[in-house]
From TrEMBL, chain B:
Location within or outside the cell: Cell inner membrane; Cell membrane
Transmembrane segments: 278-296, 335-358, 378-400, 412-438, 450-472, 509-529, 643-666, 678-698
Pfam family, one: FeoB_C
UniProt GO cellular component terms: plasma membrane
Entry binding sites for Mg(2+): 23, 26-27
Biological source species: Flavobacterium orientale
InterPro entries, A to Z: Fe2_transport_prot-B, Fe2_transport_prot_B_C, FeoB_GTPase, G_FEOB_dom, Gate_dom, GTP-bd, P-loop_NTPase
PANTHER family: FE(2+) TRANSPORTER FEOB, FERROUS IRON TRANSPORT PROTEIN B
Name listed for the protein in its UniProt record: Ferrous iron transport protein B
Amino-acid positions noted as binding GTP in the UniProt annotation, renumbered to this chain: 12-19, 37-41, 59-62, 123-126
Main location: membrane
Superkingdom classification of source: Bacteria
Recorded topology in the membrane: Multi-pass membrane protein
Length: 77, 699
């Protein structure tokens, strides 16, 4: 099922399929945000923002507005 | 004969252990911590490589890549692109660590493209067994065209191998390990045509981002048919990054093995609790409470002990040195002044201990995560909270710590508001004033009223900081690009050596720094109090005893002492500012204390001790607190430190910008005198008004 990273539920894993190059900073790409890499939502902060991800083995936090720009395919377990 | 030292630069992702390695190599004690962005400036040290060869080692801020986003990262690329820089390295040591090797290698491949001799350090080898990681180093060396040193800077293993590689750096290959220009061959061919003398990747770095690079004229590019728009450049950068990752993935597939039965998900489990919506906050505030508890409660035992020691030292000095004004200066001015700072060692050490633990454990990033949304309302981001927390120790490192905030507006606001947080220099002033004006009673049976007041002052500082941020956010009109990406480093058990060193070094710096100012200030003050431009000053003894012959000897001596003090240089100076501070409930002596505090707040107590010691003829030694308590206002006949003037003074110290070193560091960080001057006048002006209102309402 295709969705965006901000829609992931806690513990849900997904594969990155596309993201908006104009709004995603290079820094995030360098930290592992690219097509084919896996993301898992570990935690959302109070009030739902920012969100805490495991992206290709790197643990990082981004805000929802950025997470919206990353499309993923959820992996069924 | 000694050859020139080899210049070595340590470069790597944040938090890979560059500074730990630097400390190992140089024997220095730079601060390390498990939070990306601990190092924010260049640090140089020297290291002996054996065989009479030496190296100068340069520690740099961590950077994720050569495409930079924030000021601290910029340092790295500016160094590497400028061959004329004094620190331009002969050899680059790229520091990576076993657990995040894949991401760490990205930067390595970029630096290799610059064709500088490059060594690869894989740090934290001590973690390999625990995490079930094994590496095929020889294979990696071939694929990456470099020499690799597998080390642990914590356990000090592999350091000698590294030294050997560095001393033979001329043997290192300077060949790039992948051909990045393949991402758009035509484009790079064209570049080469226009700038035949420039190294290709360097050109690309300069073109794709804004870095200063003197010899290159970018305008030629704009007129060319092949030049690219910003969006196209970004697309290319993206392609480049993917290409590098593919290259790295291919290598790691054959050289790195992770035993899946050992790798655990412990970190994520811990984070499910520590960053939980409810428990996360509970734990965070629990930690804050613990910090306060340690500062206000646990510290009191050693503090009382130190107080007594200094009091007995004072009386010992006044008994054993020949009586006179100089002995008074030492026994009643300097020693209590120094004591007034030394007594805060327990509190300050506790504060540094906790902050150091927060940084070393990796918890600080979680605080950023938890508080980001809340802080955004005030024009800040979660990252601003780190300077605000470490600002409770000292504003200077806190202001420097703002360097890893990418957004300039957020960063500027954070710099401007940080001095409102209650730094450790305010503790001496607060504690003594609270002891003078707030009764030592308990409310509701267990809350100590004095402790509560102190806590209130901390809260006040923080609230002021946040409110000013809100105001600044709506005043400052410039827009700057904002994005929030923060790495959450793995939790680590804090390393006792790092924490211990940090606490000792910082506490030492505080005490010696303050001690020096206090001693020199008390000497200056003493001279200013002992001389006068008026003749009457020098004949005071005879004139006063003759005109007041009806009084007792004690009263006459008192009169002489206070007459002389008022007519000395310091008295004249103090009297001239008295009209300004009188509405705030202070006398001229406090005025001198306040003026002296603009050098640094913590000198207030020492200054008062010196002034009072000159102004009295008494030989018996009182603690500075008793001395302040017995000060009587000459006009009203009430104690000088009464409830109204005390509260007014506390508020003044809470808000006024009284710290020269902070102003200097803000000037350095913002590159202009405008912002520190705004801080100085706005904060101090505001402090004056609040203190005035408080005194007028309460008196
Ligand atoms: N287990 C282990 N931990 C290490 C080792 N070297 C460093 N660390 C820890 O890693 C963390 C980061 O170390 P630093 O030396 O501050 O890293 P840095 O690369 O200078 O970080 P920045 O200045 O923020 O870029 C600290 O908590 C260190 O104690 C090591 O060999 N083994
Ligand atoms: Mg460092």
């Amino acid at each position: 099922m295709q969705t965006t990273v901000d829609q992931l539920k806690k513990g849900e894993k997904a594969i990155i399929v596309a993201f908006n190059l104009d709004t995603i900073p290079l820094k995030l790409i360098e930290m592992g945000c690219m097509e084919g890499h896996m993301v898992e939502l570990i935690q959302t902060a109070p009030f739902g923002d920012p969100i805490f991800l495991d992206m290709n083995g790197t643990h990082l936090a981004i805000r929802k507005e950025m997470a919206k720009e990353i499309s993923v395919e959820i992996i069924e377990n | 004969m000694k050859s020139n030292p080899i210049k070595v630069a340590l470069i790597g992702n944040p938090n890979t252990g560059k500074t730990s390695l630097f400390n190992q190599l140089t024997g220095l004690k730079q601060q390390v911590g498990n939070y990306p962005g601990i190092t924010v400036e260049r640090k140089v040290g020297s290291c002996s490589l054996g065989d009479s060869k030496n190296a100068t080692i340069l520690d740099l801020p961590g950077t994720y890549s050569l495409n930079t986003n924030s000021l601290d990262e910029n340092l790295v690329i500016e160094l590497l692109l400028n061959k004329n820089d004094n620190d331009y390295p002969d050899v680059v040591v790229v520091v990576t660590e076993v657990e995040n090797l894949k991401r760490n290698l990205l930067l390595f491949t970029q630096i290799k493209d610059l064709e500088i001799p490059t060594v690869l350090v894989i740090n934290m080898a001590d973690q390999m067994e625990k995490k079930g990681i094994s590496l095929d180093i020889p294979k990696m060396e071939i694929a990456l065209k470099t020499k690799i040193a597998l080390i642990s800077s914590r356990k000090a293993t592999g350091i000698n191998d590294l030294k050997k590689i560095i001393s033979n750096y001329q043997e290192l290959s300077t060949e790039a390990c992948l051909n990045a220009s393949e991402i758009d061959s035509d484009y790079f061919e064209n570049l080469k045509r226009i700038y035949p003398n420039q190294q290709n990747y360097k050109l690309w770095l300069v073109i794709s981002q804004d870095v200063n690079f003197g010899s290159l004229n970018k305008t030629i590019l704009q007129n060319n048919s092949f030049s690219k728009s910003d969006a196209e450049l970004k697309r290319l950068q993206h392609k480049e990054t993917i290409k590098r990752y593919q290259f790295i993935n291919d290598i790691l597939k054959v050289t790195k093995k992770t035993d899946p039965t050992i790798a655990t998900d412990f970190q994520s489990k811990l984070d499910r609790i520590l960053t939980h919506k409810i428990f996360g906050y509970v734990i965070f505030f629990g930690i804050l409470f613990l910090i306060f508890q340690s500062i206000f409660d646990w510290s009191s035992v050693p503090m009382d002990f130190i107080d007594e020691q200094f009091a007995s030292l004072s009386s010992w000095v006044s008994e054993h040195l020949p009586p006179g004004k100089l002995t008074d200066l030492i026994a009643q001015g300097m020693i209590p002044g120094i004591g007034g700072v030394v007594i805060f060692i327990p509190q300050i050490a506790f504060l540094f201990l906790f902050i150091s633990l927060l940084e070393e454990s990796g918890y600080m990033s979680r605080v950023v995560f938890l508080m980001d949304k809340g802080m955004r309302r005030f024009g800040l981001s979660g990252k601003s909270l780190v300077p605000l927390i470490s600002g409770t120790a000292c504003a200077i490192p806190a202001v420097m710590a703002t360097r890893n905030i990418e957004n300039w507006k957020e960063r500027l606001i954070t710099i401007l508001i940080t001095p409102f947080t209650t730094c450790s220099a305010r503790i001496p002033v607060y504690t003594i004033l609270i002891a003078l004006i707030i009764p030592d009673t308990r409310v509701l049976g267990f809350l100590n009223l004095q402790g509560l007041t102190l806590m209130f002052l901390y809260a006040l500082g923080f609230i002021m900081a946040i409110l000013s941020a809100k105001i600044l956010n709506s005043i400052l009109k410039f827009q700057s690009k904002s994005f929030f990406v923060i790495e959450m480093p793995n939790y680590k058990i804090p390393y006792y050596k790092n924490v211990g060193l940090n606490v000792i070094e910082k506490t030492k710096a505080f005490v010696f720094g303050a001690g020096k100012i206090i001693i020199s200030l008390s000497i200056i003050l003493w001279f200013m109090a002992s001389y006068s431009p008026k003749d009457a000053f020098y004949t005071a003894e005879t004139t006063i005893s003759e005109t007041n012959s009806s009084l007792s000897e004690d009263e006459i001596n008192d009169k002489i002492a206070s007459f002389k003090l008022e007519n000395s240089y310091i008295g004249i100076l103090g009297k001239s500012i008295e009209p300004l501070i009188e509405p705030l409930g202070y006398d001229w002596k406090i005025g001198i204390g306040i003026v002296a505090s603009f050098a640094a707040r913590e000198v207030f107590v020492g200054t008062m001790a010196t002034i009072y010691s000159v102004g009295s003829h008494e030989d018996e030694v009182n603690t500075i607190k008793q001395r302040m308590k017995s000060e009587i206002h000459p006009v009203t006949g009430k104690p000088i430190y009464n409830f109204a003037s005390g509260i007014s003074l506390l508020l003044f110290y809470a808000f006024a910008m009284q710290c020269m070193s902070t102003l200097a560091v803000v000037k350095k960080e913002t590159n202009s005198w405008k912002w520190p001057m705004i801080q100085l006048f706005v904060m101090s002006g505001f402090a004056y008004i609040v203190a005035l209102i408080a005194y007028q309402l309460l008196k």
